[in-house]
Amino acid sequence: MLSIAARRSWRRHAAGYAFVGPALVVLAAFLVYPIGYSVWLSFHEWDGYTPRWGPFVGLENYRALAGDEVFWRATLNSVVFVAVRTPLEVGLGFLLALLLNRRLVARSLLRTLFFVPVVMSLIVVTIIFQRVFEPNTGLLNTFLRAVGLGAFTHPWLGDPATALPAVIAVSVWKNVGFSLVILLAGLQSLPQDVVEAARVDGANAWQLTLRVITPLMRPILALTALLSIIGGLKVFDLVFIMTRGGPTYSTEVLATMLYREAFELNHMGIASAVAVILVALVLSIARVQTFVLDESRAGGKA
Amino acid sequence: MSTVVASAAVARRQQRLGRGARAGRVGMWVVLLGALLLSVAPGLYMLCLSFMDNPQLFAGRLVPWPPHPENYPRAWVASNIGRLYWNSIYVSTASMVATVALSAMAGYGLGRIRFAGRGVVYGIVLIGLTIPLQIALIPLFMNLRTLGLLNTRLALIGPYTGFGLAFGTFIMKGFFEGLPRELEEAARLDGAGEFRIFARVMLPLTRPALATVAIFLFLQNWNEFLFALTFITEGRMRTLPTGIYALLSSEFYGNYPILAASLVLFSVPVLVLYFVFQQQFVEGITAGALKH
């Protein structure tokens, strides 16, 4: 026989599951189960066609990756991609956010337009930029010729030396607005009394920005950077459509390698191992993110 | 005497500041307008290209004069874009509706009911928020193939719902948590059951959050490429991104203006949605980033 209190708490648990249940089923089917399946596949050798998942090979797929030049190239490219893109994205985003964080004509219009690249579909962006980088009649080379810098015209995407920088440039172009919006919201949430006090004490705009605002913004800057790193590690569409990882793997990243191994070479085991490594990387970065957030929350309470 | 000297010094300082401020103002506008130009130039370039013909394009022109508006009807037919629109609208809307409904319920459960295992469920949501969807690519492909669902709309609606759910639940949970306790208690005293409280009392209050989730997910689904590329291999069921991508390897590859016109047709609904609902959109992004 249940007491009234116990019955009530039982009811509460049941109600909780009734509300969460449907979502939980979908999350299990599309998130939890696929993660488990991928890990499982990464221990097997499978072409994707024989029934089941082929023979168990233990860590062989991971060992094969460790000895694979393309894998290291893709990893290095992913790291370079993130290492170059994130500082540019956050730095430019912060600069624009600082400029927009004051009374300004057309401020909201500017913010709206700066954000347009973020909303545009990557396929559209990529095809436009393929055209911009096109060697003969593309916008960039045409422009260089027009201003007398014809010596600098270049087959930007066709040369392994410039393909990755070109892809990174497009990525920065597309995502600066994202950082801008977060950082601007952050700036507007700063304690105004502190900023105002510094201004009354005679701090000029530079001092205010460097000594007062930037330190206050540090947690949000770190958070924006982490989001950019995570986004950068996941990058697929941009590289896949723009260069397909080429020329000669110069723009191959982990996500494009995964796709090629799985759906062009039918190496499901290897591809799953790449997926597991990618997820491990992203989740370890996200782990750092929660640390930063906890820290900023603790700082905010102090 | 000393006050006169002091005020002169202040005046001089203000003058210097004024000059500095003016230079700063000019510099600021140079940066802002430069950034503005960079933000909109590629889009305008695409728009210009879409009104050219091939000879104009290969001459390296920028201004499409005389214009060739006939590219648009040709693009419409060539890319079968009506079909692509329909597929994209269907898939994006269906998964958006499913996600909003499920995440409103889950957000309520997580945000307002203290049940056992709540932390674990929320943990799954947080993982879903950051995990790359590549992890699910091969497993979902295999399962969809086994179930005979490849090249159906369901092959996209299911995964889009699954991957949008984490974001939706996260936002809705945050919003439900912020609602006052009194309303709920008043309804409870009136004898309303849990579901009635949710549907009649609390849900109507979350309209702004629902709008944010809906707009954000619709655009995300509308632009999604990787799943659409992998799970839909036949032309009939393609959505806009992969339909346009297929054009790249078709006979129209050589005809860039037609391609550009297709890109414009593809982008217009997205941009209209964005300009109309930008408040919700920006809120979705900042909420996802800042309010963990």
From the structure above, extract its key features.
heterodimer; A: 302 residues; mainly alpha; 13 helices; 0% strand; B: MetI-like fold; 2 domains
Q: What proportion of the residues of chain B is helical, as a percent range?
A: over 70%
Low-confidence stretches of chain B: none
CATH class of the largest domain in chain B: Mainly Alpha
Query: How does CATH name the architecture of the largest domain in chain B?
Result: Orthogonal Bundle
Count every helix of chain A, treating DSSP H or I runs of 4 or more residues as helices: 13
Number of helices, counting only DSSP H or I runs of 4 residues or more of chain B:
14
Q: Classify the helix fraction of chain A into a percent range.
A: over 70%
Overall mean confidence score, pLDDT of chain B = 85
- Determine Rg of chain A (CA atoms, Å): 25 Å
The CATH topology of chain A is MetI-like fold
Helical/strand content category of chain A? mainly alpha
- Which consecutive residue ranges of chain A, at least 5 long each, have pLDDT under 50? none
Distance between the termini of chain A: 49 Å
Name given to the CATH architecture of chain A = Orthogonal Bundle
Largest sheet of chain B: none
Secondary-structure-based class of chain B equals mainly alpha
How many structural units, i.e. domains of chain A? Answer: 1
- The first-level CATH class of chain A is given as Mainly Alpha
Strand content of chain A: under 5%
- Summarize the biggest pleated sheet of chain A: none
In short:
The complex is a heterodimer of chains A (302) and B (292). Chain A is mainly alpha-helical and 302 residues long.
Can you describe this structure?
Helix content of chain A is 75%, strand content 0%. Chain A is mainly α and 302 residues long. In chain A, helix 2 crosses helix 13 (268-301) and helix 10 runs antiparallel to helix 13. The longest helix of chain A has 38 residues, at 4-41. Chain B is 77% helix and 0% strand. Chain B is built from 14 helices and no strands. The interface between A and B is large, with 92 and 91 residues.
